[in-house]
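Example record

One chain of 135 residues, shown exactly as stored in the release files.
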Amino acid sequence: MMIDSSLSSLGAKVVVAASCDENHPPENIVDGSTKTFWMSTGMFPQEFIIRFAESTSIATVTLDSYNVRHLKIEKNTSQNASHFESVTEKELERTEGHLQSNAISLNGTSATHLRFIITSGYDHFVSMHRLTMQN
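Predicted structure tokens for this chain:
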């Protein structure tokens, strides 16, 4: 089992994000820190896609976020980010004054890309602080 605090050090990149604020860019999701974050622009759905350097087996992803209500995770196994298939979806509990931290099982699924779709939030704006994974 391997835990890495920074997906970017494994060559993972955010290749698509539905919105971009230059003060809170999407790269902040994979930098291993909860102090930096990506923030949405207030419309739903919001999504971002993570591309791995190579096909990767993923047991669990852990998301540190704020105000995310409902999340879908999809995967793809090709070199380009198209033709995704559903992996799981989850309703997240609201937190006040601290981050939501949710470990979501992906059952060892293999993927070259993971798409995270935030279909609703507890507020107009949501933020994604850190994404880590175990394989």
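Notes: The beta strands are 3-4, 13-17, 38-39, 46-66, 68-76, 85-91, 100-121, 127-134.
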